Amino acid sequence: MAAVMPAPAASRHLLSGNEAVARAVWEAGVKVAAAYPGTPSTEMLEEIATYPDLYAEWSVNEKVSLEVAIGAAYAGSRAFCCMKHVGMNVASDALMTLTLTGVSGGLVIAIADDVGLSSSQNEQDSRYWGRFAHVPVFEPADSQEAYAMTLDAFALSEQFQVPVILRMTTRINHVKSIVTVGERVPHTGAGFRKDPARYVMVPGNAGKRIPLMFQRDRDLRALAETSPLNFIEPGSDRRVGFITSGPAYMHVKEAFPNAPVLKLGFSCPAPFEKCRELAALVDQVVVVEEVEPLLETELKAQGIAVIGKDILPLQGELSPAVLRPAIARLLGEVLPESEATAALQLFPRPPTMCVACPHLGVYYTLSQVRNLNISGDIGCYTLGAGHPWQAMDTCVSMGASMGIALGMDKGRGESDKDKRVVAVIGDSTFLHMGMQGLLDMVYNKGNVTVLLLDNRAVGMTGGQDNPGNGRDIHGDEAPRIDFAKLVSALGVKDERIHVVNPYELPVLFKTIREEVKVPDVSVIITDQPCVLIKDYHKLKPYAVDEDKCTGCGNCIDVGCPAIHVTRRGKEVKASGREVDLAFVRIESSVCTGCGLCLQPCAPKAIEHYVPSAPIQFVKGGCLA
Amino acid sequence: MSATTNILVVGIGGQGVMTATEILAEAAIALGHDAKKTEVAGMAQRGGVVSSHLRFGERVLSPQITPGSADVLLGFESAEAMRWQHMLKKGGITLMNTARLVPPVVELGLFDYPDDPLAEIRKTGNKVVAFDATTIAQELGDIRLGNTVMLGAIADHLPFGAEVLLDCVLKRFARKGEKLVELNRRAFEAGRAAVGAAEAALA
């Protein structure tokens, strides 16, 4: 929503939490903003990059992005960094020492927790980083608060020379609500002041910083007790009071409009006295927090009687629909019957690869090769674990396909002695955290075939640019990494490096078949772009000649969503075996002519589509 | 309608569900309402399920619509309209496109697509109006007008006049020239008329 940029102060806008934070980052006079894309955090930096007068970059991973932000904050400028929850696992090495040096210019780190796992490999509670790293945590409850707390966080960061974590969740990042924006206040950096005792964290220096960190904890807790971000709404129904934060606050207010509520916006260090104050008002206190019983545990340790995860779920999002029955049970009440009819049973509709996606050829081929153990990675190509390919056996963390493949090779049991180990990783994931694993594999003489799927984009998060496609965050030209040279420099033998067009199935098949037999590290790079980015060019669509289709169904195994079954049948083979037949058509309005499906077509029934009227391409799906 | 209006827009990643909901939200805001819009859209661009929640009124707290409390369900695809019936309140209405978008898991023979989603919805007792937005768009000369047809379809089921929504739709196309504005105006009216005719037939 670039249109926000010139918006005058005090005007109201429908903004997502991500857009609201971006606006505040710009208004706060931030000079440097860095991130690696990750749902649900991605749009923060995408949006920031549309504002003038600041530097924004896609970093290669979250650790580097945080380090770039730290450098800018050391230099006295305001800096911002954002990531999804798992990104902080990567960046935390920097965070855990950053807390000792502190910052000069304000530094705010927005962490987006994917509560409910809409697009992540796990569900983590980033509020723990505040406790672990001894840094304050702010938790907005909607877009307006995300905007305002970002501005407050910069002020607090400079007041205490401490990085501040803005903990968001999908229901903040991606929810659009009304925000009143303000004006930009330019911020002049103080410049870098050399101070080795503070910035060079060797044991002698670091040891002296630790007591300062603990003192800061105490000071911040005292401030949290009086902060306007933490407030009690006394309510009228004193049977149950709630202590809550983030989007859970909205659910509590919706479900129990008359209940006393302590809302924590400045939630770490937690204001224990404020919590006691609420407890004194009510018969029972329920802590409503997503995800872990973090505050609940702290309050219990403080001797404050609270109820929490004993009646509320430990996993997934909270909502009024979750809270109402739990509290009714606590009070021994019976809820009025819901007006909802029972949910109707229906097929699932999991995400699919796109029509003509270059990964289709890779997974179709892998599904046709026997005796493989395939360690996978994180990106669109994780979908290769699903139907029809089922050609990915593990998915853990960014870049993990490399180390896990080597471990599978070195740790293979007797039953796997004839299995070949394959690793599949995308271009951006490889640059994020895969390179080191490949180096380790080469150095330790592994026997792994690596498929490096270079589609020139961070596909799953929306096709962001990266060092592999030669464009920076603004789409301007940037140095482009040569993957073949890179893996060669990491020690892969040149004869073991192949660059293959993934739409040429026979070549891909032959290359994989040959390389898995070689007891060495091989890297097969596929080089065709994501179909959703501008590098992709559509070709003439195909259609099925229904007279020629024999119903063999080979094309369906490619997994392209443009292929649809028109009728099914059965045939008894000469051997007496009964086989299922599926006759198909291609939805020509979405086919972009990649030609993958016609390669396994036995009767050669797929030909170029001859339209009777000009073709209208439809983005996304097939309209049938 | 209750103090807060709950509208659920459902379909498949890539159909424009989220944009349609955003335009509905803009219309609500233009009238001075508070509004919140949220999705469950894991990997929406990849053909997965998308359900977009819009709540507006004097003050909106939780962004999520509680099951059994949606006033209107706008379905961009027939099976998806069926999937979310439990979200409707008693007396709520489904406005659905009859388009059938069959996913790969069905083509692979792993699951069945219901023969008649409209009949399945009727069996629940919920009120439902069906129309063929895709064909309407095609007849107007551009399949991409489908989203505007869908917005036209809901226009007479909102607690405000259709012209407010139409204004918000057309604003989106203003920069793209008068021809496109006119086409979208026709698509919007065609959607309205289709629902009107289908409702008259049911009455």
Automatic annotation (TrEMBL), chain B:
InterPro entries: IorB_Oxidoreductase (IPR052198), Pyrv/ketoisovalerate_OxRed_cat (IPR019752), Pyrv_flavodox_OxRed_cen (IPR002869). Pfam families: POR. Residues 13-192 form the Pyruvate/ketoisovalerate oxidoreductase catalytic domain. Keywords: Oxidoreductase. It comes from the Bacteria. This is Indolepyruvate oxidoreductase subunit beta. The keyword NADP does not apply. The keyword Oxidoreductase applies.
